[in-house]
Amino acid sequence: MRVLAAMSGGVDSAVAAARAVEAGHDVTGVHLALSAKPGTLRKGARGCCTVEDSRDARRAADMLGIPFYVWDFAERFNEEVIETFVGEYAAGRTPNPCMTCNEKIKFEALLEKAVALGFDAVSTGHYARLSHESGVPELRRSRDESKDQSYVLASLTPQQLRHAMFPLGDSLKSEVREEAERRDLAVARKPDSHDICFIPDGDTRSFLESRLGQRPGDMVDADSGEVLAQHSGVHGFTVGQRKGLGIDKPAADGRPRYVLSLEPVSGTVTVGSADRLGVTEIEATRPVWPSERALDGPTECVAQIRAHGETGRAVAEMTEDGFRVRLHEPMRGVAPGQSVVLYRPEDEGDLVLGSAKISATR
């Protein structure tokens, strides 16, 4: 098979490319340039999308003896990922930019170009598995539960999965690093990528304020309706947030306050005690079914709402524009804009049924 290996400059994608070569595929490496101004992306050899990452990817490709190219996806990345991220926060929602990047850049823009150029598959260093027992590729959790990335891949379509390869799905991270050392890859001990690549200093609030400006509003107590403070914009907060609220007055009961909801039109941030954070019902829209297994009536499942967050048993059923999830036990920190991913509870809940964007909670 002709395989295009997406090489971020980190250890995972380098070993994934090496395994594709070892399997006998005709492999070409490609690094995605995601910024017209690379200096605006995070620095420090983190393994994602900086100039130094591009150089590390090229060195790995040279070691593997495969052709290597850099493709400029900066304009599309800005439009599909950064602008979407800013717009979602402005609307009072909490997006996952890595999930958007996987969906729109790595498995839409990249795959479209790869197929047009005659490649059969795109290989990445994601920790996830593909199985074919049902006759179609089905997305499953990786063997390494601590590194599992099936959540951020759950927005991929069956057609995209047919052209996907995840060579690391059955490996532990420690095994991948050991293999990189055996192969003399310079990235063997390179730190993993963390946080958001297009926010170099990690200050999301300042980044959003630079794009959206200040949009002052009230911070209101959920119980009393009292205005506790003023803030510069709902985009500076997420549901479940405890720190950085800017409230000087302690709660009457002395317990910490958390963000309970955001109202972008009025600019109201509502806060309250932790016991108000529990969510038992989730409404989600724009569903994607990677396994081609849409829900057939009320279905027992395992729900996950963050990339490495807790999971909960639930019952999901279709609605007019998505699906509804009723959790058996309350979950905290569930916010509109996040994705909810459903797993089949059999086989230890490792098969992805579907995903959708959270639109409302109760």
Automatic annotation (TrEMBL):
MF-aspect GO terms: ATP binding; tRNA binding; tRNA-uridine 2-sulfurtransferase activity
One CC-aspect GO term: cytoplasm
UniProt keyword list: ATP-binding, Cytoplasm, Disulfide bond, Nucleotide-binding, RNA-binding, Transferase, tRNA processing, tRNA-binding
Active site: 101 (nucleophile), 197 (cysteine persulfide intermediate)
List of residues binding ATP: 6-13, 32, 125
Subcellular location: Cytoplasm
Matches recorded under Pfam families: tRNA_Me_trans (PF03054), tRNA_Me_trans_C (PF20258), tRNA_Me_trans_M (PF20259)
EC code(s) of this entry: 2.8.1.13
Predominant subcellular localization, coarse grouping: cytoplasm
Region (Interaction with tRNA): 147-149
Main function: Catalyzes the 2-thiolation of uridine at the wobble position (U34) of tRNA, leading to the formation of s(2)U34.
Assigned protein family: Belongs to the MnmA/TRMU family.
Protein name (Swiss-Prot/TrEMBL): tRNA-specific 2-thiouridylase MnmA
